[in-house]
Amino acid sequence: MASKPRWRSGLENAMALPENKGQMQYQLATVDTSGRPHVRTVGFSSIIEPAEHPHLPVLIGITDVRTPKVTDMRANPYVELCWFLTGSKDQFRISGPVRIIPSPHVESAAQGESTLALDKLSEQGFDWEKKRVAAFDSLPPFMRALWCKPPQGSTIGSYEVANEWLKTLSKSNQLESEEDKQNFELALRNFALLVIDPIHVDWVEAAASPQRRTKFMRNGEDWSEEFVVP
Ligand SMILES: Cc1cc2nc3c(=O)[nH]c(=O)nc-3n(C[C@H](O)[C@H](O)[C@H](O)COP(=O)(O)O)c2cc1C
């Protein structure tokens, strides 16, 4: 069985360091339909892999299907993220095809290009809907409520309008009133997984002396790496 690519161990080790505690956000770049780039902060959720394929990891994030970034990713399903872990001074730039996994109740459209790791997961019968619901249920109540607010980027008359929005939302097995259940359904319909299949990784170890920079490339199932000038 092929082993984890070295960048993956580097990222997992960096995430586990106490000096990087809480640094679970990266900047995600997409390109819109007119070719313009857009970048924004997105939270890291998890890394998964097809069974017995640790060399084909995919990065899972969460998003709202109504956001412009999802429109960008549907038009151009290829992204790059930049993640600088300030404690250890490791920078990872990771790029590859992206797929949005929405609620099965709102979207029947194609969910993105086929990619090696995602196709392998599907072949193995990976249950994306189970993963999506589990990811939503694992959020803190204040975060679940965010998927009930109006679409991000829509205009509001004043900042105070936000005082009227839902503040917390219980998890699936703790919904009591009919209103709670409706809010939960609405939020879960807007909630989506954002899955990146890395094929290029650029890792800078800025704290090393001398600094190190390594480029990793995946060709088929094989990773190669080369050392480059930082
Ligand atoms: C600290 C922080 C974390 C965020 N995490 C996410 C996230 O995990 N997923 C997401 O879709 N948006 C996240 N956002 C919101 C996006 O960065 C962005 O502001 C919003 O989605 C609108 O971007 P868009 O118009 O490019 O879609 C986060 C914002 C901040 C400030």
UniProtKB/TrEMBL annotation:
Transmembrane segments: none annotated. Residues 5-101 form the Pyridoxamine 5'-phosphate oxidase Alr4036 family FMN-binding domain. Pfam families: Pyridox_oxase_2. Gene3D superfamilies: Electron Transport, Fmn-binding Protein, Chain A. InterPro entries: Pyridox_Oxase_Alr4036_FMN-bd (IPR024624), Split_barrel_FMN-bd (IPR012349). PANTHER family: AGL049CP, PYRIDOXAMINE 5'-PHOSPHATE OXIDASE ALR4036 FAMILY FMN-BINDING DOMAIN-CONTAINING PROTEIN. This is Pyridoxamine 5'-phosphate oxidase Alr4036 family FMN-binding domain-containing protein. It comes from Fibroporia radiculosa.
